[in-house]
Predict the structure.
Amino acid sequence: MNQAYKELQPYLERAMAFRTALILIEWDNETLAPVQAVSYTAKMAGAVSAAYQEMITGSELTTRLEACEQEEGLSEMEAAVIREVREEVDDLSCIPPAEYREYKELVSESGRIWAKAKADRDFLAFAPTLKKIIEFEKKFAAYRAKDGQKLYDVMLDHFEKGFHIEQLDQFFNQLKTELVPFLKQISECGTVIADEFLSGEYPEETQKKLASLTAKYLGFDFSKGVMAESAHPFTTALHNHDVRITTHYTDNISSALFSVIHEAGHAIYELGIADKLTLSFVGQGASMGMHESQSRFFENIVGRNDAFWVPLYERLQELFPEQLGNISREEFVAAINKVQPGRIRTEADELTYSLHVLVRYELEKMLIEEDLEVEKLPEIWADKYEEYLGIRPEHDAEGVLQDIHWAQGAFGYFPSYALGSAFGAQMYAHMKKNMDVEELLKKGELIKIREYLREHIHQYGKLRDSRQLIKDMTGEEFNPNYYVQYLKDKFRTLYQLSN
């Protein structure tokens, strides 16, 4: 280990301890914490965040960081850690400590404010909090922006480096141009797919058994992870030996089932990060887009694949004999792939999913770059859903309040979902050249698929960015054409379209 890096190490360990504490507070807030605890715990989250900022920007750490930056011969890991720490120092040193602590207290408490507003279907109850979050986000982005850099580009860079407004406009315009008319073609083709059996009396306790069974089957290691419930499913990790996922249960069996598969995809990524990287500044996914590529890969390319259900469907029927006993595997797989424009992103079919993301991307640009009034969000949201998906929300809970991300200050995150889907499709096209993916699924040999992803993606954590990982794996630069072609091939077959 480089001597300068060795002297920096104790400070990095302390920084990771603060980060871990904040992850635990967030996990508790979203899962088990009593409602009355939130405002009090938020103050402690603010205090821990303030201490973290003070430590990460303090002279003891920055002096040693500068010494490391002058060194030659750093290992790949050491150089990557230095890069990530420098970015964190630069991001936090420009924010006044009092403002940073106030913001952290706000977003620690805002999740519960959002949850209550959603339960009450009352956006106006959440709007004042959202205004404050947006004001902070724009102020912090202005502090961080380089000359001439747009505020929303600063936010996007936090989640997916190299994909700014210019690149994302091109990406989403391609999806809009290709998928909106294709969706109309499917809607008018006349093919009817039954899916009413997915909803009804699905006892929650039995759904929980299915959730555990499915997560374990996919490769989620319960000796290194736990599963809980939350208003909005999510995954978090303290390190690669403590990865936590959540889901929620409804009267539709596919809702919890596919949220578990999605979150298990995130978790498998975190579990696959190399031991030498975990508990370091590069011991997490390369980017949110790369993270979403893994969750969407497992959710859709694996979980909605007929081959996946060949060894598993009888076990599903055994759990729900009255509901699915007379439903064939082919009928079930067709139902879980049915294209049906809906109002809820997390329950969207695979074809329309990125159109949900497009709505959020366009609204975020309006909020950040055009100063859209927060109170106008519900109406514009509804207008865009009608334009792209042909439907309007009936109330705020299935409209602008359905996602927790803005309550967490995660502006710039949503494009990662669509990018992740495109990353995953390109990886899938490459994998099919090297292995018979469908045959492995039929045999239940998911370990070979997981190991291939671990070898090419998971183990590297943040050593390399998403563009480099895709190029290293596939031999090509990122190419969204794979995603469009994947969707068209799949749904032309399902809906028996001639072209």
User: Anything to note?
Assistant: The longest strand covers residues 242-247.
